[in-house]
Structures are given as structure tokens and as C-alpha cells.
Write a structure and sequence with these properties.
Radius of gyration: 17 Å
CATH topology: Metallo-beta-lactamase, Chain A
CATH architecture: 4-Layer Sandwich
CATH superfamily: Ribonuclease Z/Hydroxyacylglutathione hydrolase-like
Number of helices: 8
Number of strands: 14
Strand content: 25-35%
Mean pLDDT: 98
InterPro entries: Metallo-B-lactamas, RibonucZ/Hydroxyglut_hydro
Organism: Rhizorhabdus histidinilytica
Pfam families: Lactamase_B_2
Number of domains: 1
Protein name: Phosphoribosyl 1,2-cyclic phosphate phosphodiesterase
Structural class: alpha/beta
Length: 254
């Protein structure tokens, strides 16, 4: 099993429109961040987490079209508004792609993008809607999830297990719960939200994330969903051993 970080940026990406790099060095390519998404892959199964507005370019960069399932963490625009590009995956599969989300998120997705799930004007549906279960298997990858407080909603924290190896993905939360500790403790790799240094009302800030990492003690932690204040080099120099910033295109195996 391996993970590819498709994107590790916040909702506006880095740079923001207007070439706003903030505190990030534009000469460092790892500071260029598209919206947060990952691929999880075994020898026989490939899972896409979220369909960001940058999905098309992310999958082109990864040279990937074969997807066995999509898992949405939640329905915020930066995590789902690339959903129209699933059409190309549908054409490659010749069948709708199974798409999983919590019930409330799926309801919102179906309200906004009904044609994706039901088809329209002779165009077939491209996604088969399914509900995320606490513990399920997709292909040969075990998938477990936990509800993470994220402002007024809940996002899905995800743990993937295959052949005694584990990867956790936990983005878009503002509170770290006992259930999250239980799910992510001891994973080999944990990709986890760290929006910025200053506290934020709906996201984890750096000190909160580092506390969570100490509690869960993963083998390795990667910070994601970072804004333009989080310069790759300076941030990396300040982090403890075993913790590093993610970057778009990073691939890693447990």
C-alpha cells in the first residue's frame, strides 16, 4: 500500500489568486499547493479521497485514470467541486464509480450535483452513491472512519489498512476527540491537518496538531491543508523528528 498526496493546500491553494504567496518562498516548488486530496493504492485497489477543484490536474500529474472508489471527507467546495471530472473516470471504467460519504454529506452532494448520481438529458450517472460505514473493505483495503468536528459539520477521518500496514488521513477538524485518538493511534503514516500557526475556528493549528501527533504516536506524520503562511523550508526546520510538511506529488509507503 502507498499514499500519494495529490494536494496539500487550503481552500484557496498556494499561491492565492493574484500570485499571493504570503510567507511562502515562490522559488521553492514544494510551496505550490493545490487543494487537499490523496490517493491510496494497493496492488489491486486504488482509492481517491475527495474530488477537489484541482482534481483534473492532480490526476494528470499522477498519470492516473483507473479509480476503484471515491471517498469524500465532507461536502465543502474545496473537497468536492471537481466532481464533474469523475466523468472521465466513468468513461475509462465503463461504469459509475462507487462514491462514499457520510449521510449528511451525501445528501448535500446529491442536492448540488444530482445529475452526477442520476444522469440527465441522456447522459448517464457517473457516481454510484454509497454511505461510509464505520468499518468496511473496498477491494483489498480495509477502511475505517470517524466523525471529526469541523465547524458546524463533521468531516470523515479515514484509516486505511492493508497487509499489516496502516495510513491515516485526518483533515478539516477543529477538535481532537477520543474517537480520533482511538482510530489514528499507532498508524504507520498519518497525514493530518495543520492549517497555520495561529488558531483557526474550524481547522487545526500547528500546536494542536503536534499535540495530537504526540498522543497518537504515528510512525511518521505529514502536515497537510496548509495555507500561504506555512513556508515549506522554514516549517520543516521547526518540526520534531518524524514530522514533516507534505507537498503535492509526494508518494510514500508504510
Amino acid at each position: 500500500m502507498k499514499i500519494r498526496v495529490l494536494g496539500c493546500g487550503t481552500s484557496s491553494g498556494v499561491p492565492r489568486i493574484g500570485n499571493d504567496w504570503g510567507d511562502c518562498d515562490p522559488a521553492e516548488p514544494r510551496n505550490r499547493r493545490s487543494r487537499a486530496s490523496i490517493l491510496i493504492e494497493s496492488a489491486t485497489t486504488r482509492l481517491l479521497v475527495d474530488t477537489t477543484p484541482d482534481m483534473r490536474q492532480q490526476l494528470l500529474d499522477a498519470d492516473v485514470i483507473a479509480i476503484d472508489a471515491i471517498l469524500w471527507t465532507h461536502d465543502h467546495a474545496d473537497h468536492c467541486h471537481g466532481i464533474d471530472d469523475v466523468r472521465q473516470i466513468y468513461h475509462a471504467r465503463r461504469a459509475p464509480v462507487p462514491g462514499y460519504a457520510f449521510a449528511e454529506a451525501m445528501q448535500q452532494l446529491r442536492r448540488r450535483f444530482d445529475y452526477v448520481f442520476t444522469g440527465r438529458d441522456g447522459y448517464p450517472p457517473t457516481v454510484e452513491p454509497r454511505l461510509l460505514q464505520p468499518d468496511m473493505t473496498i477491494g483489498d483495503i480495509r477502511v475505517r472512519c470517524v466523525a471529526q468536528p469541523h465547524g458546524s459539520i463533521f468531516s470523515a477521518g479515514l484509516r486505511f489498512d492493508h497487509d499489516s500496514k496502516s495510513i491515516g488521513y485526518s483533515t478539516d477538524f477543529h477538535e481532537f476527540t477520543d474517537e480520533m485518538i482511538d482510530l489514528f493511534s499507532g498508524v504507520d503514516i498519518w497525514v493530518v491537518d495543520a492549517l497555520r500557526v495561529r488558531p483557526h475556528p474550524t481547522h487545526a493549528h500547528l500546536a494542536m496538531t503536534l499535540d495530537a501527533i504526540r498522543m497518537c504516536a504515528p510512525g511518521r506524520a505529514l502536515l497537510t491543508h496548509m495555507d500561504q503562511s506555512m513556508d515549506y523550508a522554514r516549517l520543516g526546520e521547526s518540526l520534531p523528528d518524524g514530522v514533516e510538511p507534505a507537498y503535492d506529488g509526494l508518494e510514500m509507503q508504510p
